[in-house]
Amino acid sequence: MVTQELSNDSKAIDDKSEFLLITSSTCHLCSRARSVLTALSLEVQEIDVDSTEAVELATQEIPLTLLPVLLEKIGEEIRVVAYGRFSERRLRKDFKQ
After folding, report:
1. pLDDT in tens, 32-66
2. Which of 26, 19, 67, 16 minimizes the C-alpha distance to 46?
3. Most C-beta atoms within 10 A of its C-beta, which of 68, 77, 88, 90?
């Protein structure tokens, strides 16, 4: 199941959560996203948008047109957490940090 939402509800980070960061080598916002995620001490698996894994995500109707894209995967469910220019303040609020 794929959930495509940017939730306004605060959610604590689930221990079972896996975070995926979809990036591109030519993406100028991707380095900022990495810095924000490092500041939040959030471990992510970085995936190049041209990789097979990213293509598989796209076939599941995960929007990958505005990079970077941060996804949270819990089991088979995937939700879009952030995309484009990441806001450290909003992510801290979302993850109650």
Report:
1. 999 999 999 999 999 999 999 999 999 999 999 99
2. 19
3. 68
Cβ proximity of 18 and 73 under 8 Å: yes
CATH number at residue 40: 3.40.30.10
Decide if 26 is inside a domain: yes
The model carries a pTM of 0.83
Q: Which domain holds residue 72?
A: 21-94
Residue 82 CA to residue 84 CA, distance in Å, equals: 7
Task: Work out how many domains the chain is built from and give that number.
Answer: 1
Tell me how far apart the alpha carbons of residues 40 and 37 are, in angstroms, rounded to a whole number.
5
